[in-house]
Amino acid sequence: MDASEFQLGDIVQMKKPHPCGGNEWEITRTGVDFKIKCLKCGRTVMLPRWEFEKKAKKKLGHKEEESDG
């Protein structure tokens, strides 16, 4: 997958599940490195761009912004 199609807040599915059993991740940083957060346990992981492109399976959607009003 091409990393240019991903943006902050996107929810992605990786090819292998996290040890906690979760398979959905939120992108919290893009650039040379990608930072992703497991939506099941909250653990964050940083991956180089090439590794993220290799391990990402598909884009599931975009996280909705939470508003206080």
Give a verbal description of the structure.
The chain is mainly β and 69 residues long. Strands 4-3-2-1-5 form a 5-stranded antiparallel sheet, covered by helices on one side. A hairpin with a 5-residue loop joins strand 3 (33-38) and strand 4 (44-48). Helix content is 10%, strand content 42%.
Alpha-carbon distance between the two ends = 37 Å
Share in helix? 10-25%
Principal-axes shape call: globular
How many helices? The count is: 1
Largest sheet: 5 strands, antiparallel
Key terms:
single chain, 69 residues, mainly beta, five-stranded antiparallel beta sheet, globular
Brief rundown of the structure:
The protein has 69 residues and is mainly β. The protein has one helix at 49-55; strands spanning 10-14, 24-29, 33-38, 44-48, 56-62. The protein has a five-stranded antiparallel β-sheet with strand order 4-3-2-1-5, with helices on one face.
